[in-house]
């Protein structure tokens, strides 16, 4: 396996990728795609189109049945289970339901991500405080998830995703549980992270966001990429 580290390397490559589940459902069929460093990519499509499978392949939650998936130069299908955490060190993941540890404070949730990759302990406190300030939660670092609003919890999730300086942030419906005001706050935050050089791939059903903050759009239907365009529109009715 090769871990890329050279400027200009492709962040994500998929070649002839198929994903077929045990019940026979073909979630992805012959996918070919390439994502360059620094891109912001929306992944859109109807429910059941294959978006989640497409996203999960990138952080090795799922493996392709056929084809090749390269993330930061690593063929994820060949990664042994015990090495998956190593591959994910350069990937930040933001979920719709936050997935925060309920008994930990905001500070502890973000710090845990650094501990998981065995980051130097002497750097943890300053780095955690830095990213919590970036997401606007300097005054909430000691709050536990049940003391935070949905928008604040998602901000902690984003801080956790970026604390290890990933080359790629994968956001799976990050605004799905939020009201419009908080959704826009999260989007502006993701744009800021992208402007700092991090590649962002975001699956979403939010038509207004996609049509307002124009970026590259990859549309998936019935397991196929049917549209891939820069500055694209959402293209589906709510």
Automatic annotation (TrEMBL):
Alphabetized UniProt keyword annotations: ATP-binding, Cell cycle, Cell division, Cell membrane, Membrane, Nucleotide-binding, Transport
Native organism: Seinonella peptonophila
An MF annotation (GO) of this entry: transmembrane transporter activity
UniProt xrefs under InterPro entries: AAA+_ATPase, ABC_transporter-like_ATP-bd, ABC_transporter-like_CS, ABC_transpr_LolD-like, Cell_div_FtsE, P-loop_NTPase
Name assigned to this protein: Cell division ATP-binding protein FtsE
UniProt domain ABC transporter: residue ranges: 12-237
Cellular location(s): Cell membrane
An individual GO BP term: cell division
Superkingdom of origin: Bacteria
Function: Part of the ABC transporter FtsEX involved in cellular division.
Gene Ontology cellular component list: plasma membrane
Family, per entry: Belongs to the ABC transporter superfamily.
Predominant location: membrane
Subunit and interaction comment: Homodimer. Forms a membrane-associated complex with FtsX.
Membrane topology summary: Peripheral membrane protein
